[in-house]
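Sample entry follows:

:::
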Amino acid sequence: MTAPLHPLRIAAAPISWGVCEVPGWGHVLDAHTVLAEMAALGITATEFGPPDYLPADPLALRAQLGEHGLTAIGGFLALPLHRESDTALTFARDTAARYARAGAEVLILAAATGLDGYDERPALTDTEWDTLVDTAAAIAAIAAEVGLRTTLHPHVGTHVESEAEVERFLADSDLPLCLDTGHLLIGGTDPVGLARRYADRIGHIHLKDVRLDLADQVRDGALEYSEAVRQGIYAPLGAGDIDIDTLVREVYRAGYTGWYVIEQDTALRPGDTARTPTRDAERSLRHLAAIGSALAAARI
């Protein structure tokens, strides 16, 4: 695609090509393939993916991205924030330093349960919740020391998933959110409504479209999240049940100037290639670019 004639800052993430931090998630395409596919679509910025996917050395990481004309945005870091742990803070400090040296700008934090995957979610005590909020604040301060912003990512299978938990976190913390349309909807939050109510708390955006029939099954406990992903709970933007157009217009009108990261989480089978993920990513990119072009034409 040619250079965009619209105001939206569009990026991608390796999860759209099946690259996930969960052990046993699926077949993993090599980084060169995924980054080359992004570049072929005209994408110029990406998140990092799992901690061990791209080079650990920041200079090598920057060089690998540069080979494909990509710049770094930041990455997703899931930690058990509800536990008092110097280990988590040390890991966050090391991660933030690496991100900053690689040229990134945002640390996307999630409140992991401490279990592998996102299919089980033990309840928290009030004390554990308070620790979660305090640890998130401590990590944000650590990241700020090296020039990174921190956002909290409501996510299925974490301790900030449901609408009540999202609202509680917003009340108890001053951290901005990574507004992930898919995870919010699956967790029971209307992402458009949240964007309208908390426009000033949106620090980063992951755009996913979702099949509501499968989302309802996950929310009701009838279907595990990982299986729902394999069944195609996520769709290209504009092909699912989220009003992506309205959401983008709302946040843009409210003054959001950050990244819109296209994500369509998928799990690949052995032998799968990049063909289908790239086709879907191109469809999402064209849909989002059309929204951006309409915004530019309307001079909103």
